[in-house]
Amino acid sequence: MADLETFRSETRDWLEANCPPEMRAPVRDERDVYWGGRNASFKNDAQKAWFEACRDKGYTVPAWPKEYGGAGLSPAEAKVLREEMGAIGARPPLSSFGIWMLGPALLKFGTEEQKVHYLGQIARGEIRWCQGYSEPGSGSDLVSLQTFGEDAGDHWVVNGQKVWTSYADQADWIFCLVRTDKSDKYQGITFMLFDMESDGISTKPILLISGNSPFCETFFDDVKVPKGQFVGEVNRGWDVAKYLLGHEREMISGADGGDRTSAIGAAMARHSNEHAGELDPLLRAELAMFDVDALAYACMGEKFLDEIKVGKAHPAQPNTMKYAGTELNKRRHELMMATGGSRSLEWDSKDTDGGTPARSWLRTKANSIEGGTSEIMLNVISKRILELPGA
Amino acid sequence: MPLYHDDDQAMLADTARQFMAEEGSIAKQLRHWRDRDCKDGFGHGLWEQFAEMGFTGMLVGEDDGGLGMGHVEAGIVLEEIGRNLTPSPFLSSSVLAATALAGGDKAAREKWLPGLISGEHVYTVAIDEGAKHRPQRIAARAEKSGNGFKLSGKKDFVIHGASADMMIVAARTSGDDDDEDGITLFAVPKDAANMSHDSVRLVDSSMATHTIFDGVELDGDAVIGDVDGGRALLDRMLDAGRLGAAAEGVGVAGGAMDMTVDYLKQRKQFGKVIGEFQALQHRAAHLYSEVEIARAAVIKAQQLMDAGSEKASLMASVAKAKVSKTAGLAVREGVQMHGGIGMTDEYDIGLYMKRDRALAEFLGDANYHADRVASLSGY
């Protein structure tokens, strides 16, 4: 414990010296996020300094081993770092699907060579990754995917189409589920990694109801993928994908300690009083009931993390977190729209920072669709936790 | 502190679960006493067993002869009480009265606690003065009289009011009905003169009273805590009771849910087990998710209370509101998914619905506590 306290005070000093004041403000939206990659540019010097300080210290991925670019922190130390960063409101130095999704999969399934090579690149923010899972006909029924990799000796020739590929137009590489054996629905998928600059790849952004387009359609037309670039085993990519989906659900649910479930009533009431007049009693009641649900949900998040640490959590519990968390987040944004009144409808005004309330509200509607729909979550809970019979 | 039971607490949970399932079961207790129209609404034999198990004095400090445990432990017993709908004075006597008496001076503790711990006596509390929980308004008055007080007023929804050996009454010793200050807690013994009870059986077969105090004479040593300064102790007692009711409610919700999920796995219609139908699966899974959230809120609030955190009151209200909503959902879904059989007296699911209704109302319903969450959060 004494060591941990030393670590805490050292961390505090390090953050004080290295985290610029501009990086201690809440992230407004994607404009404030640094994603790294071959074509990355920093928004300002503070963002650059903060990223580089963290990269050199291994703090872009603090819990990864040092040989893979991390800081090799123990879970307890990583928690201290999270707490201390939270205490000063520090922004994440690097956002990356490589950190959140591919990294955990490589740590579990990758070869030593892959770990050293790819994890290091991810940790240093050199390669920006995108995820190629969903296809036009394979959303919730992901395993029905059709993108096919034909064996051509020393490489595969990949043809097909992916959809909802977040930031595919800005990504350097893709981790992708490709069918390599048509005879077996589950055991015929390979988890491949390849360069988005390969010949035959094209992307097209999909404009969303929020007016933004983080998502793309991605087309593969005779793309050559060298045979060595797969994770796990050939035809056993579904194991990797399942493992990764679990991570994704935890992340989307906010079990990583995000503050989006904290009490909002007081802030909303202030906001309403400033902009929309005195809080309507029925709206106040809705806010109060939301706070009850949100504070209780935050307790479940804390309990879940505590239980994971000692192996007490049900393996399917991330589905419960994801289901309840995303439904709650949608409700939160409905309430933010209601308390903001007509001001929250403004799409392009300076006052609303370019329509942030409305755009965020619309964006949250995807929470219960992406990473597995709420309906899929309920299917998993009823089958794996309640053990109700399969249809 | 991690939000799960430590080894000692897990052991207590195993013991309590087994004991309550065997001795406190619906058939052995609730139905047994209900069908005999029992005037107390609970079995004294079982209450003696509670004492033998050491449950009665869990929240009493070791210096006073109790076990010196906390709200997490009391909640473990209450959850099993809830799961089995076990009628007992545990919440009123061992949680509410024990918490109030802990704030009393040594003489009061020596006078009342041994009977509470041994189970020989049961105590209760008299707070509400109307059909809704509204402890911020207290009109019952105790006027100075000689060395003591004269208590007048009316209290409603006094659980076990007629069978309690002593009731702790919140009365006003100064100020106006809605004032924060001027509250005093009194220990009023069963045989006090000028006190009358109108005893009523409630929907869940428990017994409560409308109690009238018509100049009840009390000695000075009937005061628990400080004269005129009882509001803080009253709040502490109420928060303990609300948390207790929330813990019991999680048991009610869990019991109803388990019974319903089991039924979904057995009942056949259209040649299929009805648990195969996605419409029902999704509702069951949603219910499970809500129960998990409610359970987490309860243990968090218990730990905060035991740690003496200033957030304990807020979380007690979060827990009570969340559990009331969740247990309500559990019993409504339970009766509906059981279909016709769920409407019969013979089947237990309806008993869960009745108990939930009484528990939801006790010490403030979901609306009351959501409103309190808003007030405590400053809006």
From TrEMBL, chain A:
Q: Which cofactor does it need?
A: FAD
> What keyword terms does UniProt attach to this protein?
FAD, Flavoprotein, Oxidoreductase
Keyword Electron transport tagged:
no
Acyl-CoA dehydrogenase/oxidase N-terminal domain span: 4-126
Residue ranges of every copy of the Acyl-CoA oxidase/dehydrogenase middle domain listed in the record: 130-223
GO terms for cellular component: plasma membrane
Q: What is its EC number?
A: 1.3.8.7
A single MF term (Gene Ontology)? flavin adenine dinucleotide binding
Domain Acyl-CoA dehydrogenase/oxidase C-terminal, chain residue ranges per copy: 235-386
UniProt similarity note: Belongs to the acyl-CoA dehydrogenase family.
PANTHER family per the UniProt record, alphabetical: ACYL-COA DEHYDROGENASE (PTHR43292), ACYL-COA DEHYDROGENASE FADE29 (PTHR43292:SF3)
What is the protein name given in its UniProt record? Medium-chain acyl-CoA dehydrogenase
Q: Which organism is it from?
A: Alteripontixanthobacter maritimus
The opening ranks of the lineage are:
Bacteria, Pseudomonadati, Pseudomonadota, Alphaproteobacteria, Sphingomonadales
UniProtKB/TrEMBL annotation, chain B:
Domain (Acyl-CoA oxidase/dehydrogenase middle) spans 140-201
Arranged from A to Z, the UniProt key words for this protein are:
FAD, Flavoprotein, Oxidoreductase
Query: Which Gene Ontology molecular function entries are recorded, alphabetically?
Result: acyl-CoA dehydrogenase activity; flavin adenine dinucleotide binding
- Enumerate the SUPFAM superfamilies for this protein: Acyl-CoA dehydrogenase C-terminal domain-like, Acyl-CoA dehydrogenase NM domain-like
Q: What is its EC number?
A: 1.3.99.-
- What CDD domains is this protein classified in? ACAD (cd00567)
Q: Which family does it belong to?
A: Belongs to the acyl-CoA dehydrogenase family.
From the Swiss-Prot or TrEMBL record, give the protein name.
Answer: Very long-chain specific acyl-CoA dehydrogenase, mitochondrial
Q: Which organism is it from?
A: Alteripontixanthobacter maritimus
